[in-house]
């Protein structure tokens, strides 16, 4: 008898977890991954992760469960090879649900988003108001989806790991570039994979880095992902206090963990590295424009979200400003961001 027609919490299961496709969402999902690993209901657990994101979970509690995916075909093959009883879909994409359905996974649990409710056997239906989805914290939605399979998540604090050898490598690299570790550094990640609408002007980032150098003596260090070399260079070039660009150094999501963990403060846009700071309890200031602040309203104990309030067009959730003025970011002053940085890092 297929367990799709029974309660999936009543018997032992082989479980596949389809991890999120965004860095921040993946970090927010780590408490769910750990809770699934510890749940005695599951006799075996696999976590399917896009290949470029594997470094996020490397050296962490669930690293041994990870299976990298280079393509959609890999995903279907992984289901058929592992023969799971259930899949926990922590990504909200239609394609992920469709591939699990095509692989004939009996129980398919996830959020009823992206028009995929009919492909799920167990679903969480997010609340709506006047026909529109009400924004709720992503971490809360992930926890609720996990509950469909009887996975109880005791807390939502994200957890990551980074090996000592990598920490030592990144520390030595920073020393070579002029960082005095006795004084410390501010790590700046000005990019946003989502799109240009989330980008704060490079000169504003530089202004805050320079002010923090004068106030606290922390050297500015600027980094980013593949393709962000020009943006990283622009922030460093705008600095009057010799902020360091890592554009020509080896950079990846695994090395970034060591850089965040070793910093005095993370200055970042509305992007994934913010959740690295949360995982390592590093103070963080995040500048936010077109997004709903409610979607990331967790792990705020050492974080400050700075945004322009009262704009009729915000949040628009668009990758590029549809009105062309980009007021949600251009009207956000360096002084406000600096004040938040000084407050959270005391």
Helix count? Answer: 13
Number of strands: 14
**Class per helix and strand makeup:** alpha/beta
- Beta-strand portion reads 15-25%
Here the CATH topology of the largest domain equals Rossmann fold
Proper CATH architecture of the largest domain: 3-Layer(aba) Sandwich
CATH class of the largest domain: Alpha Beta
**CATH homologous superfamily heading of the largest domain:** Glycogen Phosphorylase B
Helicity level, as a percent range? 25-40%
Q: What overall form do the CA principal axes indicate?
A: globular
Radius of gyration, whole Å: 21 Å
Order of helices and strands: EHHEHEHEHEEEEHHEHEHEHEHEEHH
Strand order of the largest sheet: 3-2-1-4-5-6
What would you note in describing this structure?
- This protein is α/β, with parallel strands linked by helices and 346 residues long.
- The longest helix is centred in the middle third of the chain and has 15 residues, at 202-216.
- It is globular, with a radius of gyration of 21 Å.
- It has helices at 23-28, 30-38, 54-57, 72-82, 94-102, 138-147, 164-176, 202-216, 229-238, 253-261, 273-279, 327-330, 334-344, and strands at residues 13-18, 42-50, 66-69, 86-89, 107-111, 122-124, 128-129, 132-133, 185-189, 219-222, 244-245, 265-268, 284-288, 303-307.
- The protein folds into two domains: 3-147, Glycogen Phosphorylase B (Rossmann fold, 3-Layer(aba) Sandwich); 164-344, Rossmann fold (3-Layer(aba) Sandwich).
- The chain is 34% helix and 17% strand.
- The chain contains 13 helices and 14 strands.
- Helix 11 links the parallel strand 12 (265-268) and strand 13 (284-288).
- Helix 8 (202-216) packs across helix 13 (334-344).
- Residues 1-5 have low confidence and may be disordered.
- The strands form three sheets. A six-stranded parallel beta sheet has the order 3-2-1-4-5-6, sandwiched between helices. A six-stranded parallel beta sheet has the order 11-10-9-12-13-14, sandwiched between helices. Strands 7-8 form a two-stranded antiparallel ribbon.
